[in-house]
Amino acid sequence: MKTLNKGILYDKMIQEKSDDELGLFDKYQETFVKIREKILSCEVKTIVDFGCGTGNLCGPLSEKINVIGIDKNIEMIEVGKRKYPNMRFVESSIFDEPIIKQKVDIVVSSYVLHGLNEKKQQQVLSNMLSISDNSRVILIDFMFENMHIKKEHKERFLRNDRKDLWEFIESKNFFIVEDLRKYIEQMGLMISFEHVGNFTWIAEIKK
């Protein structure tokens, strides 16, 4: 029996929000629209999407600006190429030294880094910053504002007999806003945050 392409399955999951009891993707489309509007307002010429998947975030921009997507999953890229023929897809790991050698206007990443441990998160952020002109990076991902808020969520899940959902969260590495702010500011950069709903935050880094 033939299995469905991972890219097709991913897009189907996002559209139908299947098996998303945590509501992780409740404002997926609205958040992406917000980011695309922000990018266009900055008169951007070239943007790189780290872990681009099927191109859902930046693909729609490829009619107007130069969009480069980096992903190691060839099945995701195959679907992305069919959806956005003007977008340049590069098969590469986000952990590798960036193969994009020229400086670009903005580097983005969406719903990727929460699946990595802290060391790997920092490695990918370093790679993103290294190719961005003026260190302009936009990160969309799952975060807790601080450890106190994270503890409150844990208590609520356990109180409601949803240890299974909390264990899923614990199996990932949601950012802590306070910690990410401290890490970025220690590099001499500025970072701003916007909470867009549930666990989803937008972090914008720049000089």
UniProtKB/TrEMBL annotation:
The keyword Methyltransferase applies. Residues 47-130 form the Methyltransferase domain. Keywords: Methyltransferase, Transferase. It holds the Pfam family Methyltransf_25. It comes from the Bacteria. Transmembrane segments: none annotated. GO terms for biological process: methylation. GO terms for molecular function: methyltransferase activity. This is Methyltransferase domain-containing protein.
